[in-house]
Design brief:
Helix content of chain A: 25-40%
Shape of chain A: globular
Order of helices and strands of chain B: HHHHHHHEEHHHHHHH
Strand content of chain B: under 5%
CATH class of the largest domain in chain A: Alpha Beta
Strand order of the largest sheet of chain A: 6-9-10-3-11-12
Shape of chain B: globular
Radius of gyration of chain A: 25 Å
Distance between the termini of chain A: 45 Å
Helix content of chain B: over 70%
CATH superfamily of the largest domain in chain A: P-loop containing nucleotide triphosphate hydrolases
Largest sheet of chain A: 6 strands, mixed
Distance between the termini of chain B: 31 Å
Oligomer: heterodimer
Number of strands of chain B: 2
Number of helices of chain B: 14
């Protein structure tokens, strides 16, 4: 009998242009909480998706209970005792708790009818186990996020899971809810269930986990017992390189205030409230905060994608109204959205079409005929200037790597020569080399006198690039930090101020 | 330096997969052509080209909806409405059951403009309902299909319309230098649409909406306006198709054009317009229509009963879409 309940050895996985996992290893002892840590893009989620059968691994072996196993899809993973509580939960909102838990494997009567009585009784028992005294017939849409998470955990328990993967389970929970979750985790651990716990919150990791595995750039760095580690040790092993050379030198000089937002409040109840800030010419303004702090919602509202209830936007001394993105664009404002796939790229269209779409007005002859020569020149200029690696301007954007896709979208906005660029998580899902190139572009634009607003969840990036950082928490601005005094600690404490 | 595409085993296999349905149908046509000597005759060719011409005009209309990830199920009924409006306005004055006995002889061009405008309004309604009320195109145009049929029934009193003026029917049978007028009209439509799709902002915006509607909105595209324009233009093309069909048949009834939307959608799909949106070329649509008409004529030549041809056509539509979706599934 092996010492480990689960072993993943030498796992490799590549995506076009990126090697996401390079011989990654994970060994989990039975009845332990095993933290999996690493920077964004280190490959944690990818490794878990390989384990859960969402991705198929290119190389490597998965051993459960000493027996080599192939996991072909999530259903297969469940039958082999592996369950996953996703980063973004995917509940069926309009059905009951019981139906959510037993969906796909309802208890049956005579193999023909669903045994509702048994289903509700079992659910009630399960919910008690995860400290949740709820009626199993309640619809999921009436629960809070943390309660939905408990339901998800109950579901894992009901499937007799022996390994439960929790991907950033506390990212949108309050401290009380986190304590509650830890209580449930301790219960599960006592029952002999192993938990793979992915988180960025170091103090949580040290307090809850038994073992810690650290990953960097898709590679396995090592596994330690949690009690041997300190936060500093984890961070050093995680980053593994000098922080100094991560960012290009900056020579921008912030000038007069060009853009100002006053008392902006969303039309949505739970979104941002009474947000005010100023932006200077040639300044890089960082916006920090946790996931769910409503940062994206704020900039999307400024850009006209979302609605504003009250508040004003002043730009170059004049109050402006922005009803839809077109209004913002014609004022000289650009927004690089957070989710490149959903609101950025046109996957099936060419690089040329992706670059030119927002600035076609500049390339028409006789008011309606597009001048393809001018468009081609624009594209070639940008390919050269931003070092976009592509075989031709006719290549479909979906065949490029994430970093190059991002540069194409940046080109799209630069084509309009905007005065203000709002960048929402500009380096998300991009590998380290391309990140540096994006930073260089940002620094260069600021030097040219363009004003940049940059949302980032990566604190080193936020501190490394910004001249000034405003921090949001629960839809409100919780503080402002100048570059000189910015540290990960003071930003984090502002980010959790109202929690 | 241009990279020359190499012809090798892989590229041939790729081509075969991407054009499977076209290749199969051309093979069928060749087979029929060899076994039935009349197949490759001038008369048959003319027949094919004239049939294709009208269907091509209608398919061009549907293509815009498909490229933006929508669909237009009202196409066939709007073709019927177009045919009925044009026919009732262009009946011979001495025809005994003329719908409007006191109507003077209107100019054909005026009738074309009137017909296309009226149908265009229904297309405008389609676009507005889809854009502003956010009704899925499938449902919005399905409703419009029935609605238009009803209007057509009320308008004509469900009676067939005959006795068309000879200058009108000449559009369908006449030719210049041996080239049928119908063919010329279709070619002009094709060129105009090619220009619209490839050389104008409207075209680029259309492909962008099909590629990713949210991203298009963020990039400043007024997606509502573009979609309304697409559905309006589509309806005007259906009207034109209806006008030509009535002329060709020498008369019309409320059932003219019924089911044409499915043929048009099938032809577009065979021609590479993806139901996943963002992809589709005018040349492809032409090939799709040709291939579909070729299939119908081949079946006729083989003496397959009309009832059975529907079964075959239905299967071809499903297979064409399945093959199309496979292309995109494989890439994930």
């Amino acid at each position: 009998m092996s010492d480990f309940l689960l072993e993943m050895n030498g796992i490799c996985k590549s995506f076009p242009g990126v090697k996401a996992l390079d011989h990654a290893t994970l060994r989990v002892r039975p009845g332990t909480v095993h933290a999996l840590v690493g920077e964004n893009g280190a490959g944690k989620s990818t490794l878990m998706k390989c384990l859960f059968g969402i991705y198929s691994k290119d190389e490597g072996e998965i051993i459960i209970d000493g027996k080599p196993t192939q996991i072909v899809n999530p259903f297969d993973a469940l039958t082999k005792g592996i369950a996953m509580v996703h980063q973004e939960l995917q509940p069926i909102m309009e059905r009951s708790i019981a139906e959510n838990i037993y969906c796909g494997r309802f208890p049956m009567k005579y193999h023909l009818f669903i045994d509702h009585k048994k289903m509700y009784e079992d659910t009630e028992r399960l919910l008690k186990e995860v400290k949740m005294n709820f009626d199993p017939q309640v619809k999921l849409s009436t629960l809070s996020v943390s309660q939905m998470q408990s339901v998800e955990i109950a579901k894992a328990v009901s499937a007799d899971a022996r390994i439960i993967i929790m991907d950033e389970p506390t990212s949108s929970l309050t401290q009380n809810e986190v304590d509650n979750l830890f209580e449930i985790i301790n219960l599960l651990r006592k029952k002999g269930i192993s938990i793979i716990y992915i988180s960025h919150k170091m103090d949580e990791i040290l307090s809850i986990s038994d073992d810690v595995t650290i990953m960097r750039d898709g590679q396995y760095i090592g596994t330690w017992e949690a009690k041997e580690l300190t936060i500093d040790m984890i961070v050093t092993k995680m980053v593994g390189r000098e922080l100094k050379n991560l960012f290009p030198p900056k020579s921008n000089v912030p000038g007069e205030v060009i853009f100002e937002v006053q008392e902006l409040t969303s039309i949505t109840e739970k979104s941002f409230k009474n947000v005010s800030f100023q932006l200077r010419k040639g300044e890089i303004l960082g916006i920090g905060g946790l996931v769910g702090a409503q940062r994206s919602e704020l900039v999307e509202a400024i850009f006209g994608i979302r609605g504003i209830k009250t508040g004003t936007i002043t730009y170059k001394g004049k109050q402006i109204k922005i009803r839809r993105p077109h209004d913002a664009i014609s004022q000289g404002i650009a927004l690089l959205t957070e989710d490149r796939r959903a609101t950025g790229i046109f996957g099936v269209l060419s690089i040329a079409e992706n670059v030119s779409i927002a600035s076609l007005d500049q390339y028409v002859d006789f008011h309606f005929i597009l001048n393809n020569r001018k468009i081609e020149k624009l594209v070639q200029d940008n390919v050269k200037k931003l070092h976009i690696k592509t075989p031709s301007s006719k290549t479909k954007i979906q065949s490029l790597s994430g970093g190059n896709q991002q540069k194409v979208i940046i080109s799209r906005w630069l084509a309009n020569d905007p005065d203000i660029l709002i960048l929402d998580e500009p380096t998300r899902g991009i590998d380290v080399g391309a990140k540096y190139e994006i930073y260089t572009i940002i620094a260069e634009l600021a030097k040219q006198g363009k004003s940049i607003v940059m949302i980032s969840s990566e604190l080193p990036e936020l501190i490394g690039m910004s001249d000034r950082i405003i921090v949001m928490c629960a839809g409100k601005i919780s503080g402002e930090v100048e570059k000189e005094e910015a540290t990960q600690e003071n930003i984090m404490s502002l980010a959790t101020k109202f929690a | 330096m241009e990279q020359v595409a190499k012809i090798n085993k892989k590229s041939v296999a790729q081509f075969a997969q991407n054009n499977a349905i076209t290749i199969i149908m051309v093979l069928i046509a060749l087979f029929v052509g060899i076994s039935e000597p009349n197949f490759f005759s001038f008369g048959n060719f003319k027949n094919l080209s004239v049939n294709t011409a009208v269907r091509f005009v209608i398919a061009l209309g549907v293509s815009g909806a498909l490229i933006t990830k929508g669909t237009d199920l009202s196409a066939g009924r709007l073709v019927g409405l177009g045919a009925c409006i044009a026919a009732t306005l262009l009946q011979r004055s001495d025809f005994s059951t003329k719908l409007f006995p006191n109507l003077p002889d209107l100019s054909i061009l005026l009738v074309v403009v009137i017909t296309m405008t009226i149908c265009g309004l229904f297309g405008f309604a389609n676009g507005a309902v889809i854009s502003f009320l956010k009704v899925p195109p499938f449902i919005a145009t399905l409703g419009m299909q029935t609605l238009v049929y009803g209007i057509c029934l009320v308008y004509t009193g469900a009676k067939p319309i005959g006795g068309l003026r000879s200058d009108y029917t000449k559009i369908a049978i006449g030719s210049i230098f041996g080239i049928p007028y119908l063919l010329i009209i279709a070619v002009v439509c094709g060129i105009l649409m090619w220009f619209l799709y490839n050389k104008t902002k409207h075209g680029k915006y259309m492909y962008a909406i099909g590629g990713n509607e949210n991203a298009a909105e963020v990039a400043g595209v007024n997606t509502s306006k573009v979609k309304i324009r697409i559905y309006t233009l589509a309806a005007m093309l259906y009207a034109l198709g209806g006008i030509l069909l009535a002329a060709k048949a020498g008369g019309t009834s409320v059932n003219m054009g019924a089911g044409y939307e499915l043929e048009a959608i099938a032809a577009c799909t065979i021609g590479g317009v993806s139901t996943n949106g963002g992809v589709g070329r005018v040349s492809g649509i032409l090939i799709g229509v040709l291939v579909f008409e070729l299939l119908k004529i081949s079946l006729q030549f083989l003496g397959v009963e009309t009832s059975y041809t529907y079964i075959v056509q239905g299967l071809v539509i499903i297979i064409a879409v399945a093959l199309d979706l496979r292309k995109y599934l494989a890439k994930k």
